[in-house]
Design goal:
Elements (H helix, E strand, L loop, with lengths): L6 E4 L7 H4 L7 E6 L8 E5 L6 H16 L3 E4 L5 H11 L4 E4 L13 H9 L3 E4 L11 H11 L3 E4 L7 H11 L3 E4 L10 H8 L3 E2 L3 H8 L8 H7 L5 H9 L5 E2 H8 L3 H13 L3 E4 L3 E4 L1
Parallel strand pairs: 3-4, 3-7, 4-5, 5-6, 7-8, 8-9
Antiparallel strand pairs: 1-2, 2-6, 10-12, 11-12
Helix pairs in contact: 2-3, 5-6, 10-12
Length: 292
Amino acid sequence: MHKETIETIKIGDKNYPKILKQIHSPPKELYVKGRILEDDEFAIAVVGSRIASVYGLTTAEKLGYELASRGLVVVSGLARGIDSAAHKGALKAHGKTIAVLGSGLDIIYPPENKKLAEEIVEKNGALVSEFPMRTPPTPKNFPQRNRIISGLSLAVVVVEAAKNSGALITADFALEQNREVFAVPGKVDSATSFGTNQLIKEGAKLVQTAEDIMDELELKLKVSSKGAAEALKPNISQDEKAVYESLSGDPKYLDDVVEEVKLPLNKTQELLLRLQIRKLVRELPGKHFIRV
């Protein structure tokens, strides 16, 4: 623990998260790498499927970005898919994000997210677990982990979830803990949208943007840092802005972009390339583009 700069916070300690104490059977101690602060109770969990669609990944990253830009902490589980996208969105906005693991903090799972975990800690976020060092990421740990994700948050947003997704377990914990549950609607014929659409049918609040969440929770708009404020206004030209605003989370064919922005093909391609270099736009197969 000393080598990995990991500390233990016991439930009786002053810096134990107050919001987490409110849940049934809170962890008696937490292992933390990074920083847990009093303001971290202004947190929103963004969770969803590990096998996510482009739409789901783009939406999760966008929500993570918007929430962090407004000074809220983004909580998720460092899993593949939606969780990773939410963390990345928060980091892109120079905001704070907390990852709750289903293993000891010396075992990052999935292993390909080791760099992401390091970036979370480097940028004033935190890795959290109730499991001691050297605890492997066994399947039974993750439902237990999910109650902490919701417990650290004012609300849980489910972006994509299949019928038996672990994200639905997090939503169930949220309801038990008297937290708000939000869900992003998806295509009716998509397996990864079954869970979110079902949640909405059962009373979860439909969410499209961070404003939907903040309005429902009556949270005041705030920007956490100068960096976040700058992130909201990227320094792009008018033509680049027109191309950027013509795109969304749904793939759009190149010719349709050209027709909408009313610029020559070669000029539009040049602008799209510039936006890709800035990581504001992503190209998909078949000359389709989406906003990141």
